[in-house]
Design goal:
One of its GO terms (molecular function) is hydrolase activity. The protein has six helices and 14 strands. With 264 residues, the chain is of the alpha/beta class. It has one domain: 4-Layer Sandwich (Nitrilase/N-carbamoyl-D-aminoacid amidohydrolase). The protein is globular. The termini are far apart. The relative contact order is 0.16.
């Protein structure tokens, strides 16, 4: 059974303090390296904190920005792949909620821009327009961000594009903890694909973030469940495993019947 070792960093960033958050990232990578992880995943907008909308002119970066450059160096130093989320300044000055996949050579292999914006995110951010599957030596990785998990079409699209597993970076808050707990397991089960979902903790204004980061295998079995624990946890996640041949959801699809889904 082919597997990779995944570290999940369920932590609390400090809003607007990149240096503090970079230190958290560095410390987490040291711990993940000690656990011999291949990949470490951080929550949504971890570089800056979540409620950064009013300060995007100052806080947003490109992939060549100061904060992202420091994270690339950390990936090289610790020999890790990392999925890190940040407010991205786009080519025409618009802003995106983005997650970058950085390899152990410090190269950005791809950036996913959140396609389904939640609530007040729509005031400050532009939605992305592309689903991303990124091929790496540790597997083909599909990327999603938070609210995306509530739309089954995205995970199915990533599966059909050949993803070996899905990484979801989260800033999910109460009272929506049950939504993501259930949806992430269902996305894994209905697509027969492993799912990593990394959420944060802490409070920003009237938002209280609910944790419950998990690593889930292709049958929906929870391999790692952090609930409200603070810290970095590591687990072996199979990306090739025995599946029930009677299910084979992808093979049993009736795509010719689904065209109306894209028209409404």
């Amino acid at each position: 059974m082919k597997a990779i070792k995944v570290s999940v960093a369920q932590l609390t960033p400090k809003l607007g303090d990149k240096q503090h958050n970079l230190q958290l990232i560095s410390d987490a990578m040291i711990e993940a390296k000690g656990d011999r992880a291949d990949l470490i995943v951080f929550p949504e907008l971890f570089l800056t904190g979540y409620s950064v909308g009013d300060d995007l002119d100052r806080m947003a970066e490109t992939e060549e920005g100061q904060g992202m450059t420091e994270i690339k160096k950390l990936c090289v130093e610790h020999g890790l792949y990392a999925v890190i989320s940040f407010p991205e300044k786009g080519e025409s000055g618009q802003f995106y909620i983005s997650s970058a996949l950085i390899d152990n050579n410090g190269d950005v292999l791809g950036i996913y821009r959140k396609t389904h914006l939640f609530d007040k995110e729509k005031v400050h951010f532009t939605p992305g327009s592309e689903f991303k599957v990124i091929e790496t030596p540790i597997g083909k990785m599909g990327l999603m961000i938070c609210f995306d998990v509530e739309f089954p079409e995205i995970a199915r699209s990533l599966k059909l594009q050949g993803a070996d597993f899905i990484v979801i970076v989260n800033a999910n808050m109460y009272p929506y903890e049950l939504h993501h707990h259930l949806f992430s397991r269902v996305r894994a089960m209905e697509n027969e694909i492993p799912v990593i979902i990394c959420n944060r903790l802490g409070v920003e204004g009237d938002l209280e973030f609910c944790g419950d980061s998990m690593v889930i295998d292709a049958t929906g079995n929870i391999l790692l469940e952090m609930k409200q624990a603070v810290g970095v946890r590591t687990v072996d996640m199979p990306i090739e495993q025995q599946l029930d041949p009677k299910m084979s959801y992808t093979a049993n699809r009736r795509a010719e019947l689904y065209s109306k889904l894209a028209k409404h």
